[in-house]
Amino acid sequence: MLRTAILALALLTIAPAAGAQTRTAPAKPDANFQRFVLDLWPDAKAKGITRANFDLAMRGVTPDERVIKATKRQPEYGKPVGAYVNDIVSANRVAEGKRKATQWEKTFDAVEKKYGVERWVLLSIWGMESSFGAAKDRWDVFRSLASLAYVKYRHPYFRNELFVAMKLMQDGSIPRPKMVSSWAGAMGQTQFMPSNVVDYAVTSDGKGIPDLWNDVPDILASTANYLAKWKWNRDMPWGFEVFVPKGFDYRKSRATFAQWTTLGVKRADGKPFPAEGNGILFFPSGAEGPGFIVTKNFDVLKEYNNSDAYAIAVGHLADRIHGGEPIKAAWPKNDPQLPRDTRVALQKKLASLGYKVNEFDAHIDFDLRDNIRDEQVKFGMVPDGHPTAELLAKLGIPVR
Asked: Whole-angstrom Cα distance, residue 212 to residue 347?
């Protein structure tokens, strides 16, 4: 089951027209959608949702074509990784993050002490998801989730989230007029899906109902609680840029920090590796671009949004707000991200070749990148684990 605050960044890229915040535009009745709503009710009832609250949630709701189209334009995959990271880690966002660190210093002190999550990563997520609250939620959460459930996008995830949203309203956590979100149903300044609100949202003082839209201490405490529950380790970096030595064997992808040092891999910032722990060597744009060694904290960031590009951007923005340096290696100028359908096709191809693929969900995890390395070796390519159009062509996978 997906647990991430899925696709939250799209809030920043697709703005609805003014006046469309919580009301749905009049539309001709859609018979198929009406059947979909009728089919929802028995499951909603089974989950304890009353008829009155079901009707309140779905009253006037019609399919939102903007939401459906947005599923094709995920910002993490719509441009090269380098361009995406550079856009996110802008000078303005870094500067604003430093200002927010000062403005909310006492709150960060308390949150760090209670949850063990450093302020820099919280500032980074806050800055990425809503520009520190400047970008407001404007979409009706029920219409967005119903639209995604209707077209069975990542089914049954969004259908289940729709029911959770109904429960939140019914239980009095969030009244109907305040049920606003990103186009994909993520709510508040750090973009929690409804199930995330249930599982992780907290108040800063432990009293009352969390306000993820307006109360900064609640927002920061909830985000820290989210990461802490996924075992964030404040004594470990998310990762760091590295340089590999000449003649390096790119088949090597996993090692202890001590082993990476022995292999001649060096941190780009000149700092020593952590004294203990393990790291995975990762080339998000191939060996010609920047290389990183990432830790378990990188996986925690991907629980927030299951995208490698997102996790790199969060980690790097956090570093920059904390005074770190820009990425030193140049990103390739021509490094298009594979479309979702192509990534799924690659997963299916690897499965047909005998590799273990847990889900055909378009996410190329580190195990699959090792499988890609094996295939690259067979074709005499640099085994950096990065799926390119050239590799796909050799595997017989069309690139759209």
From this structure: 37
pLDDT at 58 over 70: yes
CB atoms within 10 A of CB 282: 22
| Helix (H) or strand (E) segment spanning residue 59 | none
| pLDDT, tens digit (0-9, with 9 covering 90-100), for 112-128 | 999 999 999 999 999 99
Total tally of structural domains belonging to the chain: 2
Predicted pLDDT at 6 = 40
Regarding whether 382 and 309 lie in a shared domain, the answer is: no
The pTM assigned to this predicted structure is: 0.91
Q: Do 306 and 349 belong to one domain?
A: no
**Domain's final residue, options 287, 321, 355:** 321
Query: Are 385 and 347 part of one and the same domain?
Result: yes
User: How many Å separate Cα 207 from the centre of its chain?
Assistant: 29
Token code pair at residue 147: 């639209």
Q: What is the pLDDT of residue 77?
A: 60
Q: Please confirm whether the linkage preceding 156 is cis (ω < 30° from 0).
A: yes
Which tens digits make up the pLDDT trace of 170-213?
999 899 999 999 999 999 999 999 999 999 999 999 999 999 99
Q: Are residues 300 and 256 in the same domain?
A: yes
317 and 346 in a single domain? The answer is: no
Domain residues for 268?
A: 239-321
Q: Is residue 357 part of a domain?
A: yes
Among the candidates 271, 294, 321, a domain finishes at 321
Helix (H) / strand (E) containing 102: helix 91-103
Residue 192 DSSP symbol: B
Cβ neighbours for 257, distance < 8 A, ≥ 6 positions apart: 273, 274, 275, 276, 277, 278, 279, 293
- Provide mean pLDDT across the span 292-319: 97
Looking at the domain assignment, is residue 246 inside a domain? yes
Residue 282, helix vs strand vs coil: strand
